[in-house]
Automatic annotation (TrEMBL):
The chain crosses the membrane at residues 6-25, 32-57, 63-83. It comes from the Bacteria. CDD domains: YdcF-like (cd06259). Gene3D superfamilies: HUPs. InterPro entries: Cell_Envelope_Assoc (IPR051599), DUF218 (IPR003848), Rossmann-like_a/b/a_fold (IPR014729). Residues 96-236 form the DUF218 domain. GO terms for cellular component: plasma membrane. Keywords: Membrane, Transmembrane, Transmembrane helix. Pfam families: DUF218. The keyword Transmembrane applies. This is DUF218 domain-containing protein. GO terms for biological process: Gram-negative-bacterium-type cell wall biogenesis; peptidoglycan metabolic process.
């Protein structure tokens, strides 16, 4: 039991430490609490292992617990694999439109997550001069302007002509990004979705659900330190999406 106890403690320290780190550097959300909750759960598992509770549990309860743990492991691994399968999508050349999904805008400009998306859009637009860009995102209560407006200003500063940029300023979710951006797109016109690598799988899934025909993923990078946090959040978001 000592080895099992040590493993649980190590998991608790890793999760707790990572959650504190994410909070300290400012993730912009309260998702760091999920890591703290995992640390608490692992501490509880460590205490249970130390007390030998597994050995005195009824056999039926042990089997049920093992089955549930295996199902959770398979579910998380499967969804994680799906997310990973779309993290390096580059998009087809010569698309009619690309839609850049919005994210946090600050007074100083786009957040790091959004800058990755916009820089990828600039790269694609420079390589495909006939493609038009739809920047999609409304104004949050803690934002100085709509995300679309901030994104447009950033693209113009990077040398993208204003006439190639279309603004969608009502959306507050990924589904609304796609839904409201569709008004600019005619039937049979080709479309690419620009978002961060960890978000691409679900974004394409939503785009197809919203009626876009064969959307092409254009994956932007993300900050490596935040990747475990973002992937776990996407796994939970995907589970929620599948249920509801």
């Amino acid at each position: 039991m000592k080895i099992v106890t040590i493993v649980w403690i190590l998991l608790a320290v890793l999760c707790g430490g990572y959650g504190i780190l994410i909070r300290a550097i400012g993730s912009g959300t309260g998702f760091f609490l999920v890591w703290i909750a995992l640390a608490v759960i692992f501490v509880g598992c460590s205490a249970a292992a130390q007390a030998g509770l597994w050995g005195i549990m009824p056999q039926f309860l042990r089997r049920v617990t093992l089955v549930l743990l295996c199902l959770i492991l398979v579910l998380f691994t499967g969804i994680g694999g799906c997310i990973g399968s779309k993290m390096n999508t580059e998009g087809k050349p010569g698309l009619d439109y690309i839609i850049v999904l919005g994210a946090q805008i600050y007074e100083r400009g786009p957040s790091a997550v959004l800058r990755f998306r916009l820089d990828k859009a600039v790269e694609y637009l420079n390589e495909n001069p006939q493609t038009k860009c739809i920047v999609s995102g409304g104004k949050g209560s803690n934002e100085p302007c709509s995300e679309a407006e901030g994104m447009k200003k950033y693209l113009i500063r990077q040398g993208i002509p204003e006439e190639r940029i279309l603004k969608e300023e009502k959306s507050t979710t990924t589904a609304e990004n796609i839904q409201y951006s569709k008004k600019f797109i005619k039937s049979k016109e080709s479309v690419g979705i620009v978002t961060n690598n960890f978000h691409m799988f679900r974004a394409l899934q939503i785009a197809k659900r919203q009626g876009l025909e064969d959307p092409s993923g254009i994956a932007a990078e993300s900050t490596a330190l935040y990747l475990p946090n973002n992937v776990l959040r996407e796994i939970l978001a995907e589970i929620k999406y599948l249920i509801f």
